[in-house]
Amino acid sequence: MLYKPGVWRELFEKEYDCIVAYMPCGAVVRGIAPLLRNKWVDPAVVVVDKPMRYAIPVIGGHHGGNEVAEMLENHGLKAVITTAMEYSEGLSVGVGCRRGVKAEDVIYAINAALAELGYTLKDVRVVATAEIKRDETGLIEAIDRIKKPLVFVKSEELNSTEVPSESEAKRVGLRSVAEGCALICSREKKLIMPKRVYRGVTVAVAL
Question: Domain residue spans in the chain?
Answer without folding.
Answer: 7-82, 89-206
